[in-house]
Amino acid sequence: SFNSLNHDMTLAEFKFIWYMEYSHRMWGRVVGLAYLLPAAYFWHRGWLSRPLKGCVLALCGLVCFQGLLGWYMVKSGLEEKPDSYDIPRVSQYRLAAHLGSALVLYSASLWTGLSLLLPRHKLPETHQLLRLRQYAHGTTALIFLTALSGAFVAGLDAGLVYNSFPKMGERWIPDDLLAFSPVLRNVFENPTTVQFDHRILGIASVTAVTALYLFSRKIPLPRRTRMAVTSLLAVACIQ
C-alpha cells in the first residue's frame, strides 16, 4: 500500500491517520461496554421484564455483530490483490454493511429507550393516521437506503468523479452511467453510477420528508409528534 499510495507520507502524517483509526476502535469498545455492563447489571437485579430481556439480547447481539463487521471490513483493505493496480481501499460492500448495521443498532437502541421513557399516545386509528404511519415507514426506508448509497460513494471515492450540481459535468445524465457489464454491476461498482444514484436518492429523501411534514399538518397530532416531524424536516434541510 505504501508503494502504491502516499509513498512520500511523513511519520507525523501516518500517526495522524493511525490515531484516528485507533480512536474509532477504542470508542467502539467503550460504547459496547457502556451497553453490556449496565445490561448485565439490570438483568442480574431482575429489573428487566421478559419482553425487555429479548430486546436486550437482540441489541447485545447487534453490538457484537457491529464490531465483527468492522474487523471484516478493515480486513478487506489489507488483503493483497495481485490482479488490481488500483488504490488500496476497503470493500464498498463491507463498508455499507458496517454503516447499515450501525444505523440499525442506533435506531433500535433509540426506539427501545424512548419506548421506556415516554408513554405511548393512544390515538384513534383513523384512515389518515394509518396512511401517515405507512408513509413515515416508507420514508424511513428511503433514508436508510440513501445512507447506504453514501457508503458506496465513500468506498469507491465516487464523490471525486463529479463536483458540480445539479448537473454532473456538462450533462444531466453522464455518458458512462452504464459503462460496466452486466448492467446491475454499475449500481455497486461504477463510481459515476454510484454518485448519480446517491444524488437521486438524496433528492428523493428530502422530497419525501417535506411531503411527510406537509401531510402531517393536515392531521390532528400530539405536540410531541409535531415536534418530531418538524425536527425531521429541519435535519433533512441541514443535511
From TrEMBL:
Keyword Magnesium: no
Alphabetic keyword roster: Heme biosynthesis, Iron, Membrane, Metal-binding, Oxidoreductase, Transmembrane, Transmembrane helix
Record's subcellular location: Membrane
Transmembrane regions: 26-43, 55-74, 94-118, 139-162, 198-216
Pfam families with a match to the protein in the record: COX15-CtaA
Membrane topology summary: Multi-pass membrane protein
Names of the cofactor(s): heme b
Entry keyword annotation includes Metal-binding: yes
GO annotation, biological process: heme A biosynthetic process
InterPro entries: COX15/CtaA_fam (IPR003780), HemeA_Synthase_type2 (IPR023754)
Pathway given in the UniProt record: Porphyrin-containing compound metabolism; heme A biosynthesis; heme A from heme O: step 1/1
Signal peptide: none
Catalytic function, reaction form: Fe(II)-heme o + 2 A + H2O = Fe(II)-heme a + 2 AH2
Gene Ontology CC: one annotated term: mitochondrial inner membrane
GO molecular function, one term: metal ion binding
Entry-linked PANTHER family: CYTOCHROME C OXIDASE ASSEMBLY PROTEIN COX15, CYTOCHROME C OXIDASE ASSEMBLY PROTEIN COX15 HOMOLOG
Protein name: COX15 protein
Organism: Chaetorhynchus papuensis (pygmy drongo)
Gene name tied to this protein: Cox15
